[in-house]
């Protein structure tokens, strides 16, 4: 747990420094752009479906206004559910740059041995992670809806699912650059991995902070992977 807490603190300390700050601004801008596009497309799609279903002005006066409000609300709910998926896909696309920025400052030897991920592989990893996140959230949706009456059950279900997903994805985006050299599984324990994913998933629920969360997760995961690996090496664990 000490390794996890120190890794989180180091990751937070780098959020507003040089290369990491530039990547934070770039990834946040791209995430917001994709989010706005998806929300707009979602609004038009829902509005069209409701129109096809017969909710038009010919049905009753004000049907168009009702349709517009319903479309906007459903689009916002859908966009909120997709936010973590979009943010994760974007941060995975920039993962190599964020990890490299942290490694060059704190772990230069590891940075020198890491392999550069081709753009095609970065895009494939981003799409694969987004696909896993979408599938997991779709599977969790019925359980979340069933717990809606509790007031907090829905949020807890989505938080738990995304904590597991984020912990795994953040670890892998770092370890992928080094697995060829180390020849072993990622050194991060399941408890530390889930803790990191849980914190990042919780931060993604907070307005404005959710822009910082993915980059904080990537920077902290870089420290967590390297520091956990050092502990394993010191203990002679393979």
TrEMBL record:
Annotated localization: Membrane
Transmembrane segment boundaries: 28-50, 71-95, 143-167, 194-213
Annotated InterPro entries: CysZ/EI24
Keywords per UniProt: Membrane, Transmembrane, Transmembrane helix
Bilayer disposition of the protein: Multi-pass membrane protein
Signal peptide coordinates: none
Keyword Transmembrane: yes
Name recorded for this polypeptide: EI24 domain-containing protein
């Amino acid at each position: 747990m000490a390794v996890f807490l120190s890794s989180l603190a180091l990751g937070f300390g780098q959020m507003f420094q040089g290369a990491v700050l530039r990547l934070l601004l770039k990834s946040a801008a791209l995430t917001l752009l994709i989010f706005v596009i998806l929300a707009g497309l979602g609004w038009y799609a829902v509005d069209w479906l409701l129109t096809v279903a017969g909710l038009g002005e010919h049905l009753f006066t004000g049907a168009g206004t009702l349709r517009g409000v319903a479309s906007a609300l459903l689009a916002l709910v859908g966009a909120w559910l997709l936010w973590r998926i979009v943010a994760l896909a974007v941060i995975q696309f920039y993962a190599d740059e964020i990890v490299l920025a942290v490694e060059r400052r704190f772990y230069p030897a590891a940075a020198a041995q890491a392999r550069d991920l081709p753009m095609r592989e970065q895009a494939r990893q981003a799409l694969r992670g987004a696909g896993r996140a979408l599938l997991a959230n779709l599977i969790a949706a019925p359980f979340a809806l069933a717990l809606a009456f509790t007031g907090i059950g829905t949020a807890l279900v989505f938080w738990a699912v995304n904590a597991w997903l984020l912990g795994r994805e953040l670890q892998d985006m770092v370890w992928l650059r080094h697995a060829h050299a180390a020849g072993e599984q990622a050194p991060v324990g399941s408890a530390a991995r889930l803790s990191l994913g849980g914190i990042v998933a919780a931060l993604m629920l907070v307005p404005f902070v959710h822009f910082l969360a993915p980059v904080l997760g990537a920077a902290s995961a870089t420290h967590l992977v390297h520091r956990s690996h050092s502990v394993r090496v010191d203990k002679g664990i393979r």
